[in-house]
Amino acid sequence: MQQVNVLVGGPGEFLPEDVFTRVGQWLGVDGGAVTLAQHHRKMIAAIGDFDTAGRMGWAVEQVSLWANLLVQAPPEKDDTDTELALRWLATTMPEAAITVYGATGGRLDHLLANILFPLRPEFRQLASHVTLRDRQNVVRFYLPGTHKLVPEDQARYLAVIPLMPVTGLTLRGLKYPLTEAHFSTARALVSNEFSAPTAQLSFTQGVVGVIQSRDLSNHG
Fold first, then answer.
1. Are 210 and 160 in contact (CB under 8 A)?
2. Contact yes or no for 70/85 (Cβ under 8 A)
3. Crossing angle, helix 108-115 and helix 81-92, to 10 degrees?
4. C-beta contacts of 8-11 below 8 A and 24+ residues apart
5. How many Å apart are CA 169 and CA 206, to the nearest integer?
6. How far is the CA of 153 from the CAs of 17, 134, 209, in angstroms?
7. How many CA atoms lie within 13 A of 24 on its CB side?
8. Which helix (DSSP H) or strand (DSSP E) does residue 61 occupy?
9. What is the pLDDT of residue 219?
10. Pairwise CA distance, residues 82 & 212, whole Å
11. Those residues with Cβ within 8 angstroms of residue 71's Cβ, 6 or more apart along the chain or in another chain
12. Is 169 exposed, middle or buried (0-12, 13-18, 19+ CB in 10 A)?
């Protein structure tokens, strides 16, 4: 599966320290496109309304020098720039593995929109290909079936969140297992953690988000 890394605008302190060494093609989103250009990274595309780019002192023409394609949206729109980028990827690279950096830091309204994007019907199949990653957290989305969970980057704590009504939710290999649970509304199953090298998540209906977190007080 082809790997695409998406960098969106947001405070740099939320990014993993090794973010620019990650393997894969890059797609820049608004201020994230400026950051990639500043690091002399070529992009398959730069997408957004580029209002943040302007505040960073960069013109769209400067950003476009580092992008194979420029997709500029009007500032008056309903979607976040991250959603615009995901919609573009859903059309042009629907089978790619997508890691989004920067979508979990900064503005709370953007954070909620980015975490809840799988609820949009047009993103439902794309959701299982998308990972949101920052310095402390890894967020993934799952469709019905059986899935293996592995702690990443020392992220041994996790929350399992039914994003819509879920049936038959079963957890194995975690400190607090669960068997055939049903949830009619969204609910975060917090304060869980891995009790084995791998865990198993299964359910028969709905959409589930899983947030893995590491304790920075223990791991620097």
1. yes
2. no
3. 30
4. 8/32, 8/81, 8/82, 8/85, 8/100, 8/101, 8/102, 8/103, 9/34, 9/35, 9/48, 9/52, 9/81, 9/102, 9/106, 10/102, 10/103, 10/104, 10/105, 10/106, 10/107, 10/110, 11/105, 11/106
5. 10
6. 12, 11, 18
7. 19
8. helix 60-64
9. 45
10. 21
11. 45, 46, 47, 48, 84, 88
12. buried
Tell me what pLDDT residue 217 has. 63
Q: Which residue do the tokens 């595309």 mark?
A: 45
Tokens matching residue 210: 């899983």
Kindly list the averaged pLDDT for each block of 10 residues, start to end, along the chain of length 220. Answer: 89 83 93 92 93 82 93 80 90 93 78 85 88 90 96 86 94 95 87 92 95 70
Q: Which two tokens stand for residue 10?
A: 């947001």
The b-or-e profile of 66-96 (16+ CB within 10 A means b, else e) is bbeebeeeeeeeeebbbbbbbbbbbeebeeb
Token representation of residue 180 = 């055939």
DSSP state at residue 33:
H
Instruction: Please report where in the chains the tokens 């960098």 appear, as a residue.
Output: 7
Please state, in angstroms and rounded to a whole number, the distance separating the CA atoms of residues 219 and 65: 39
